[in-house]
Every structure is written in C-alpha cells, then in structure tokens.
Specification:
The protein starts with a strand and ends with a helix. α3 runs parallel beside α4. It has a five-stranded parallel β-sheet with strand order 2-1-3-4-5, sandwiched between helices. The chain is α/β, with parallel strands linked by helices. It has one domain: Rossmann fold. It has five helices and five strands; from the N terminus they run βααβαβαββα. Helices cover 33% and strands 19% of the residues. α4 links the parallel β3 and β4. It is globular, with a radius of gyration of 14 Å.
Length: 138
C-alpha cells in the first residue's frame, strides 16, 4: 500500500506557528513517527505553499497511489482547483485538519474539498493524520 500525505500552505511552520492551536511538534518529526508505526505501508510526504504544486501532486499520484491524506490548509476554504483535481483522480482522498475548523473563524467553516473527499477528520491535533490514514487502510 502506498499513501501520500499532502500538506498545503503554512504547514511547513508546524512546531513554530501558533503552538496553542497547532502544537509544538514539527510535521517532519510526526511523519517519522508514522513511518515507524506503519512499516507495511509506503508513506510519502509532500508539502507546498503553492496551489498549483498541490494540484500537480494530486495529478501525479492520483492514479497510482492507494490514497491521499490531505490537509490543504487555507486552500480548503478557497480552492475549486484542488477540489476539481481530487474529483479527477481515482484514488480516495481523506481531508484532515489539525484544529476543529468549526470552532474557528466563520470563513473556515466552508470546505470546497469535503464534498469530493471520502471522509473528513478534524480537531484531533496531529493525530488527525493517523485517523485519516486508518480510514484509508480499512
């Protein structure tokens, strides 16, 4: 099984950015923990602050990987292009968020991605990624 974990804008700042919301662990450290725990799954990680790069990565792996766990960051609430990319590929995508977006600013309550994803996990900190991964494994 081969799964991409795909992070959008500003998630490269995890561990530094707003630790009261996102915690103090870097994503790279967390990703290493996931790799060590799920040895039978090939986990690949990609992060970009650019919407086009995220669309390109979805196109690149969307027909050959077994799934994508994606935190599109702020693009969740703005990107029809990412939603269309998800709709256009055959592998399932799980939308994840570290924070509970419904407890935050009103503009974060709308997701363009949720309607085209297999499932949504939010509000469990970095554990949201593992819960999304577990959804793909089942």
């Amino acid at each position: 099984m081969k799964i991409l974990i795909l992070n959008g804008p500003n998630l490269n700042l995890l561990g530094k950015r707003e630790p009261e919301i996102y915690g103090t662990e870097t994503f790279e450290d967390y990703f290493s923990t996931l790799q060590a725990k799920y040895l039978d799954i090939e986990l690949v990680y990609f992060q970009s602050n650019s919407e086009g790069d995220l669309v390109d990565k979805i196109h690149e792996v969307g027909f050959s990987f077994d799934g994508i766990v994606m935190n599109a960051g702020a693009y969740t609430h703005t990107s029809v292009a990412i939603a269309d990319a998800i709709s256009g590929v055959s592998c399932p995508v799980i939308e994840v968020h570290i924070s509970n977006t419904h407890k935050r600013e009103a503009f974060r309550h709308k997701s363009y991605l949720s309607p085209v994803c297999e499932g949504v996990v939010l509000g469990f900190g970095l554990k949201s990624y593992e819960l999304g991964l577990m959804g793909l494994i089942k």
